[in-house]
Write a structure and sequence with these properties.
Elements (H helix, E strand, L loop, with lengths): L2 E2 L10 H10 L11 H14 L3 E6 L2 H10 L6 E6 L3 H4 L4 H5 L4 E5 L8 H8 L10 E8 L10 H14 L3 E5 L2 H8 L3 H4 L7 E4 L10 E6 H6 L4 H14 L7 H12 L3 H20 L6 E4 L5 E5 L2 H9 L2 E2 L1 E2 L6 E5 L6 H16 L2
Parallel strand pairs: 1-11, 3-4, 3-5, 5-6, 6-7
Antiparallel strand pairs: 2-8, 7-8, 9-10, 10-13, 12-13
The structure holds pyridoxal-5'-phosphate.
C-alpha cells in the first residue's frame, strides 16, 4: 500500500514510546501496577487534568469504555449513547458482557452527536418503573464516529441533562488529543469542567503501542452523589476480572509516561489534524467529491464517484468504504501520515477527475 488512510491504528508507534518501553524493561519492578512508573502516570494525568484522578490502564479502547461504564451501571440500567457510537457498533457484545446485560440505547442527532432534546426525553422515561430499564450512564464520543467534534457548549448541553437527572457522564476519548487540539482548550475544560465524570483517555491511535487510561474525576463523581472510592475499588476488581490487570503494567505505564512527556501527544495529534486539514482542503478542489461531514480533527467521511474510488485503490491508497454506502469512504490521518502521501492522493484524484 502506498499511503494508508485506513485508520489511525494502521500506523505503528512513536520511537520514543518504544525507547521508553525498552528502558522500563530493564531490571525488576513490582507487578500489577505497584511500580513507580504506574504511580507516575497517575501524577502526570492529575497534572494534565488539573485535578485529583484515579487511573486504570488497560490495553484496548474497548476495555477502557466498557469497564468505565460497567462500574457505573447496574445490570438493569440503560446506557445512553449515540446510535452511531463505537460502543453500539464496534465493540461486539462487550458492552452487554461487561455490564452483565445492561441495555445500550442509541440516541439520534446530526453529525453523530447526541441530540440533547432526545436525551432529555429518555432520561425521564419510566423512572422507577420496575418493568423498564433505568437510565444509568450517558456516554459521548469525542472525536465522534464521523469525525465531528462536540464544542464545549455542545458537551454542556449533554452534561446538563445528565446533571439534572443525576447521571454520570462517560467520554469515549479514543481520539481525545485530536479533539482537544481541534477545540484549542485544556483537557480540564473538555472534561470535568464541562460536566464529564470519567474518560477513556486514548493513546493507542495517537502513537503508543497499546495503552489506554480510564481516568476517573473523583470530585465530579462525588458532586453527583457517587462514592468515587467505591467506583475506583470496583474498577480494580472489574479490571482484574476482565483480564486487563497486566502483570507487567510497568510497560503500559512506560508508554503512557512517554506519551505525556515532551508534548508527544500534542505533537502527534497536531500532525494528524494538520494532515487532515490539508487533505480536506485538497479534496474540496476535486470535481465530483462531496464532503459529508466536515472534518474538524483527523477523520473525514466523503462521497466519491465509484470509478474514482477504484482508481485511487488501484493506485495504492488505502481507506475503508466505497461499497457499504454507495461512494462513501472514510479517510483517517495519523501522527505518521506523510505530507507527500496527502499530496499524492489529491493529485491522483484530480488526474482522474480531469480525464472524465
Ligand atoms: C478505536 C476506537 C475505540 C477503541 O477501539 P479498540 O480497537 O478497542 O482499541 C473506541 N472508540 C472509538 C470511537 C474508536 O474509534
Amino acid at each position: 500500500m502506498r499511503v494508508a488512510f485506513t485508520s489511525d491504528n494502521v500506523a505503528g508507534a512513536s520511537d520514543s514510546v518504544f525507547k521508553a518501553m525498552m528502558e522500563a524493561a530493564q531490571g525488576d519492578a513490582m507487578p500489577y501496577g505497584n511500580d513507580d512508573g504506574s504511580a507516575q502516570v497517575t501524577r502526570m494525568l492529575s497534572e494534565l487534568f488539573e485535578c485529583d484522578v484515579d487511573v486504570f490502564l488497560v490495553s484496548t479502547g474497548t476495555a477502557a469504555n466498557v469497564l468505565s461504564i460497567s462500574a457505573l451501571t447496574p445490570p438493569w440500567g440503560s446506557v445512553l449513547c449515540h446510535q452511531e457510537s463505537h460502543l453500539l457498533n464496534d465493540e461486539s457484545t462487550a458492552p452487554e458482557f461487561y455490564t452483565s446485560g445492561a441495555r445500550f440505547v442509541g440516541i439520534g442527532g446530526a453529525d453523530a452527536k447526541m441530540d440533547p432534546a432526545q436525551l432529555q426525553k429518555l432520561v425521564n422515561q419510566k423512572i422507577e418503573d420496575v418493568h423498564s430499564c433505568q437510565p444509568s450512564v450517558i456516554s459521548l464520543s469525542q472525536v465522534t464516529e464521523v469525525g465531528s467534534v462536540y464544542s464545549l457548549d455542545e458537551i454542556r448541553a449533554i452534561t446538563d441533562v445528565a446533571k439534572t437527572a443525576g447521571l454520570p457522564v462517560h467520554m469515549d476519548g479514543a481520539r481525545f488529543a485530536n479533539a482537544l487540539l481541534a477545540l484549542g482548550c485544556t483537557p480540564a475544560e473538555m472534561t470535568w469542567k464541562a460536566g464529564v465524570d470519567i474518560v477513556s483517555f486514548g493513546a493507542t491511535k495517537n502513537g503508543v503501542m497499546a495503552s489506554e487510561a480510564i481516568v476517573l474525576f473523583k470530585r465530579s463523581l462525588e458532586d453527583k452523589g457517587f462514592s468515587s472510592e467505591k467506583v475506583a475499588k470496583e474498577l480494580g476488581y472489574r479490571r482484574k476480572r476482565g483480564g486487563h490487570l497486566h502483570s507487567k503494567m510497568r510497560l503500559l505505564s512506560a508508554q503512557m509516561i512517554s506519551y505525556l512527556t515532551d508534548d508527544l501527544w500534542r505533537i502527534n495529534a497536531t500532525h494528524a489534524n494538520a494532515m487532515m486539514a490539508l487533505l480536506q482542503d485538497g479534496l474540496k478542489t476535486v470535481p465530483g467529491v462531496k464532503i459529508n461531514t466536515p472534518a474538524q480533527a483527523n477523520m473525514l467521511f466523503c462521497t466519491l464517484p465509484l470509478p474514482m474510488i477504484d482508481h485511487l485503490q488501484a493506485e495504492g491508497f488505502g481507506f475503508y468504504g466505497g461499497r457499504w454506502e454507495e461512494g462513501v469512504i472514510r479517510l483517517v490521518t495519523s501522527f505518521r501520515t506523510p505530507k507527500e502521501g496527502v499530496e499524492a492522493f489529491i493529485a491522483s484524484a484530480k488526474t482522474f477527475a480531469a480525464q472524465q
